[in-house]
Amino acid sequence: MLEAMTPDLILFDITMPLMNGIEFYKKPRKNQSWTPIPIIFLTANDSTEDIQAGRELGVEDYLIKPIDYDNLLKIFRARLARMENVEVAHIGKAYFETITVLANTIEGRDPYTHGYVSRVVYYARFLVLAIGWAEENLRILEIGALLHDIGKIVVPDQILNKAGPLPDEEWNLMKQHPAAGAKILQGVSHLRDALPYIYSHNEHWDGSGYPQRLSGKNIPIEDRLLTLADVYDGLTTKLSYHPARPREGSSRSCSITLATFRP
């Protein structure tokens, strides 16, 4: 029956004719896919030995007959709510892992940016914690930082991997990647909050960036923070066109702009 239909919760008596509850409990726990199912023992036997045996097995609840039905319903609701929270956590983990794989796939097209995405996420997370942003902002930032260059999927490899300055025609194509990335993600409702990181991460404080040539505090705060992490990584990472600079000096240079993130 378990193979045909996975229940949300199992309630059973310890005393049963063909297999007692202790033996039955061991069966579903041997299958990894059934391990999360909450199991509740129901029995008229309140012996210390049986209760201890259930506790040692990890039984979620152990109810003694006669049953108080209000209490039983409360236990059901609590166990089902916990199960739902576990499922949501697993979905969230799988979702974040999928985003990470996607980001690493895009990054893998550019041999000069190996490890770049994970470093920028790390630096941006550090900055967010330093200025006291809420946990929800932190989650959105991590997604935005991971996916901010997703639009580079439209840029041909020969342009993306070219050493040295790009001619105007190729540079104009490269500058399309923020808008392309925003277009890719705009139809995904649970990624909508991360769009500022994708669309405006190449804007510059002096207005010389792209795609909208925004300047100063007209640039979304998310992108000012991401740009700071990006610049710090660029300063401290050895690239084909410059050596890595000392972290101490780079930190002092970048720390001046932290004031732009505070109220």
Terminal CA distance reads 59 Å
CATH class of the largest domain: Mainly Alpha
CATH topology (fold) name of the largest domain: Hypothetical protein af1432
- Spatial arrangement of strands, main beta sheet: 1-2-3
Count of beta strands? 3
Series of H and E elements: EHEHEHHHHHHHHH
Query: Uncertain runs with pLDDT below 50, 5 residues or more?
Result: 256-263
Number of helices: 11
Shape summary: elongated
The secondary structure category is mainly alpha
The CATH superfamily label of the largest domain reads Hypothetical protein af1432
Could you tell me the strand content as a percent range?
under 5%
Mean pLDDT: 76
Briefly summarize what is shown.
The chain is mainly α.
Secondary structure layout:
Blueprint: E1 10-13, H1 21-26, E2 39-43, H2 48-57, E3 61-64, H3 69-107, H4 116-131, H5 135-147, H6 157-160, H7 168-174, H8 177-185, H9 195-199, H10 221-236, H11 247-255
Parallel strand pairs: 1-2, 2-3
